[in-house]
Write a structure and sequence with these properties.
mainly alpha; Helicase, Ruva Protein, domain 3; 58% helix; elongated
């Protein structure tokens, strides 16, 4: 009984291979789609995402992308061909190199700096408010009788 289970397990491992059943060949590439690429590139004349652009130039770009998809190119290869054809302005996101790298680095750096400033400043502000005596009406000094009389006279002028 144990030998039969061992033999079946061994047979399953041999037929499945080291990583399980193979569903795709190693040479198969992911198929690019027009809608996937349209969302990541821009119309160079409209300066809008190609997915929403409605112009003759946008239609020409879509036709060019369709021809590249028909050739079986991957999304990355199609984007490289678009850059070669239309320039870097066709990309929806700038390439992460040179000065464009600041687009990817600055926002998280500013967010981290703001969080650090708040982490330092908030405890200090809280300590100051706890240390400062709260001003209450009971601790206010009483009015001088002469000032109280003057206040009453001026208020009576407005009342009446």
């Amino acid at each position: 009984m144990i030998r039969a289970r061992l033999a079946l397990t061994l047979l399953a491992l041999v037929t499945a291979g080291p990583l399980g059943p193979v569903t795709a060949t190693a040479t198969e590439r992911p198929q690019a789609s027009l809608t996937d690429i349209e969302n990541d590139v821009m119309c160079v004349s409209c300066r809008e995402p190609l997915a929403v652009a409605q112009s003759p130039q946008a239609n020409a770009e879509r036709d060019y992308i369709r021809s590249l998809i028909a050739q079986g190119l991957t999304k990355q290869q199609i984007e490289q061909n678009l850059v070669a054809q239309y320039g870097a302005a066709v990309l929806g996101k700038p390439p992460a190199s040179g000065f464009n790298l600041s687009v990817y680095i600055l926002p998280p750096a500013i967010l981290a700096a703001g969080a650090a400033i708040l982490a330092i400043a908030l405890p200090r502000w809280r300590r100051r408010t706890r240390a400062a005596p709260a001003a209450s009406p009971a601790s206010a000094r009483p009015l001088d009788p002469a000032e109280a009389d003057r206040l009453e006279r001026e208020l009576s002028e407005f009342r009446g």
